[in-house]
Amino acid sequence: MRRAVARRAHGEARRTVVLDAAGPRITWAAPGPGTVGVAVPLAVSAVDWSGTTSFTWDFGDGTTGTGASTAHAYGVPSAYAVRVTATDGSGNTTTEQRPLTVAAAAKSGDTTPPHLTEARIRPRHLPVARPARLKVTSSETARLRGVVQRRHHGHWTDVTTRSWLLRPGKNTRLLLGQVKQLQLTPGVYRLQAIANDRTGNKSTVLHVRFYVLD
Description:
The chain is mainly β. 2% of the residues lie in helices and 61% in strands. It has one helix at residues 178-182; strands at 2-9, 12-19, 25-27, 34-35, 40-43, 45-47, 52-58, 64-66, 69-72, 78-88, 93-103, 116-122, 125-127, 132-138, 142-152, 155-166, 169-176, 187-196, 206-213. The radius of gyration is 38 Å and the shape is rod-shaped. The termini are far apart. The mean pLDDT is 85.
C-alpha cells in the first residue's frame, strides 16, 4: 500500500510516497503441551508501523479462531501444527507456525480398595505340628501378603511371611503347613496382613489371632 507524506523543504512543498509492503512482526511462544478436553491458551502480539488490525488462528485440527488471545480444546491426542496469521492496516499478512503436542486425558481407573471380611484361622487353637488354614472373604481379586507374629514380653515379633492370591468371594488358604508349624513354640500368635488389588489399591490391615498349644 502507498502512503503519502507531505513535507516542505527550501520553501517548496514536496510529496513523498512510502510503500508498506511488509507484514507485521509476530511474537508468540510455543503453546502447550496440552491434554485432551482441556483448553490450551494461545496468545500472540505483533508490531507493524501501519497498525495490526486482526489475528486469525488455524488450530491444526480443522478448526479456526480469531483474536490476539484465544483458547482451544482438542478432542484427539496427537501432534498438531498451530498457525496464526496477523494482518496489518495495509492488508499485509504474516503467518507463523508452532508445534503442539496433545496427550490423552488420564483415565479415572479403579480407586476402590479390596474389602476383606470374615477373616479367621482354623483351628484357632493349634496343637503343635497341626496345619492351620486362613479363611477370608474378599470383594475382588487381590494379593494378600502377611506376617505371622508371636507375642513375646508384650511385643509382637515376626516369625515368618506369607502371600496368597485371593479370588472374589470366600477363600481358604493354607497358613502354615506341618513343617512350618513344627517351628512354632506354644504361645499367642497373630497374622497381620494387607491386600493389594491389580491397580495398587490397598485394603485396611487385617489382624487375626490364633494360639499354638503344647
